[in-house]
Amino acid sequence: MSRKFSVSQILLYLLLVAGAVFMVLPLFWCVSSSFKVSGEIFDYPPTLFPKQPTLDNYRELFSKFPYERWYLNSVLVTALLTVLSVFFCSLAGFAFAKYRFALQKPLFALVLAALIVPFQVILIPLYVITIKLGWMNTYYALIVPFMASPFGIFLMCQFMVGSVPNEVMESARIDGCSEFKIFSKFALPLSRPALGAFAIYQFVFSWNSFLWPLIVLNETGKYTLPVGLQSLFGIFYLKEFGVLMAGSALAIIPVVILFVLMQEHFVSGLTVGAVKE
Known about the structure:
Elements: H1 7-33, H2 38-41, H3 56-64, H4 67-98, H5 104-115, H6 119-133, H7 140-143, H8 150-163, H9 166-174, H10 179-190, H11 192-207, H12 211-216, H13 225-234, H14 241-261, H15 263-271
Helix pairs in contact: 1-14, 3-14, 4-8, 4-11, 5-8, 8-11, 11-15
């Protein structure tokens, strides 16, 4: 049975396609430019595909710069921060959603207040604390302060309020389950959509983090990818923009893989509660 489309639907689809092309074009340009010689990158009119594809940019990237070290640093820091943040935020969200304790409302109000505070406001106090703890130029400074984000706590709390039935928790307690076992065996599986959505958010946030790593890291070998790519201009006075495009193209890969693997959880996490039965 053929489906008829109205004029408004056709216009909407065309608008969506145009938006998708607009979003993908910079990524495509980055990947395409990584296979061009530097002179071709600035050709006018620009070319979408390289006239004479070359791998020289990638060879130079790995031969002249510690790019693989920067990549490994970003993978380790991002993976650890994502896992720890998902765990602690879900744990705190579960506590706020399902338990009643002293100062619960003031503490949750403090979490909500932290949502509207820009990072630049706490930058200097956080920097002073980092120095006093002796964490300058260490990965502790990149991981520990962000293990429990206010956004993650709020997201998990709001999701668990409705997704984890109190009856299930009471039945588990009658069967002799500990509170942590209720959290790990019941609350977490029931909250998979929110966990997936927050994991993607936290991964992208950590992977793209630039300002804070730039401040606390001062050794080239400890740089994460965003700082390392920026240092190509400041330290090595890079003039070959094709090398920068090659490094940026490779930096996109983990984020794309994560979205592909967790797309179902991400979409369900965004749309949960949109339809009421």
